[in-house]
User: Fold these one by one.
Assistant:
Number 1:
Amino acid sequence: MRGTFFLGADREKKFEVREMQFGELGPHEVLVECRSCGICGTDVHIYHGEEGSAAVSPPVVLGHEFAGVVAGIGAEVTDVKVGDHVALDPNMYCGLCTPCRMGKKQNCERLFALGVNVNGGFAEYALCPDTQCFRVSEDMDFDVAAMVEPLACALHGIDRAQIQPGQTVVVIGGGTIGLLMVQLARLSGASMIILSEPIEMRRRIGLELHADAAVDPLHEDLPARVREITGRNGADVVIECVGKPFAASQAIEAAGSGATVLLFSVPAVDSTIPLPLFDVYKKELTILGSIINPDTHQRAVNLLNSGQLEIRKLITHVYDLEHLDEAIHMQMSSESIKVVVHPQE
Ligand SMILES: [Zn+2]
Ligand SMILES: [Zn+2]
């Protein structure tokens, strides 16, 4: 049983495939045979030595967006059985800190997560608490099932943004999350969705996923285009999915009167923007953050089971365990949307 261990961002060789041993399963442990594990922007941050949702403690197997088949269960596991197909919720909360006890588990001070500070999905097998396993339909493709986690994150963001039927939504960034947001905005009843994305291939897919317009922000003035398309001073909801300061600034500029701006992406720790205070006042803007996915996993599974989202189009590249470094570079490249690793190949 092999796994690709992350050795630390300061190492020249950042990954190493090692043998893994699994002893007897604890009463609530589940051994999952990993079939597909997506590479997330958070993995890219970790690769560069930046912080994700929680601090990383190498050597550790990264990969928190994964799905597979139950290969073994502990004595007290009742909700899944060997052979079930499952997607994992990687995030575990202490239940004891003040945020946990104030109903904000996503801000848990002792968050621990599969694929961040506990071994995750870039391995042939992963040891997972039964609470983190969500059964998915048997005919769901494992690459699609591995998208439960990012979809659950996007759902938390969509819940925060509170899109109302008939509203105009701008999505900035056409990567995996942006293209999920386009689809969730449509399901939420948005009457007009504008995608801003510099890469032609991603704009085309955005339009295939039913964005009404796709703007190239490098060659067009996004806020001006939004005003032109909407016939107003901006959109009702703007969702930023890039993680760079310029995108956050554009999001605020593209917001119309009464708008909500959701800064969804994970920025670098020291990122800042100048905030146009008068616009915030005059337009009465609501600016929101969003972190991880408290209690949205089951809804993500239900949505994927229902077939209402197009996921296959987002998965552009597949790698094996030996080529994780290359896979991470491909995830950073403009050629890709979602890169996944197949640990069994
Ligand atoms: Zn992720
Ligand atoms: Zn806590």
Number 2:
Amino acid sequence: MTKKSKFFKEFIKERKTVGAISPSSRFLTRKMMAPIDFDKADVIVELGPGNGVFTKELLLKMNPKAKLLSFELSNNFYEHINANINDDRLVLINDSADRLEHYLAIEGIHKVDYVVSSLPLAVIPNEVKEKVLNSCVKLLGEDGTYIQFQYSLNARKLLQSKFKEVKYKFTVVNIPPAFVYSCSN
Ligand SMILES: C[S@@+](CC[C@H](N)C(=O)[O-])C[C@H]1O[C@@H](n2cnc3c(N)ncnc32)[C@H](O)[C@@H]1O
């Protein structure tokens, strides 16, 4: 089975949480990485890695001492990444992103430089969204950046209610076309 058909199968099974019919394109990957200064990125958190398209690129660009904590709710995607990516800098967590603070505390981490989120904000429950974003705001402080892609501008108001600065860019070279937000306080 190809990567795309595996992804589509997971979309059919977990429609409410996967939120996309295929993995992100390399163009969207590039746009998601663009706000990151990898020289200053000691701790990166990834939310919703799916089959690991951004995970691989982050690990490729991260410095040798940096750490990546990736939260994936789907068991199938978690198993896929576990079987295909072997890197000591990656801490892969098979749980919901709203338990972010709990897992970071276990790792002794209280400050994050970047959050790279693929969470489908349009379909996940409000209480999960609130908890995730509040934790991200707290952990990113004034120097960190929250990067999020979405297929519409529906999340703009929510993100503006959490972050002082919310910028976005549009990429048509993805199925479907996507907006990439870059948010900071
Ligand atoms: C739109 S897919 C993106 C996958 C991949 N990053 C990409 O760009 O191709 C969204 C991902 O978020 C995951 N997800 C949804 N809700 C989640 C949650 N509460 N915590 C962690 N992951 C979640 C889904 O299982 C899925 O892998």
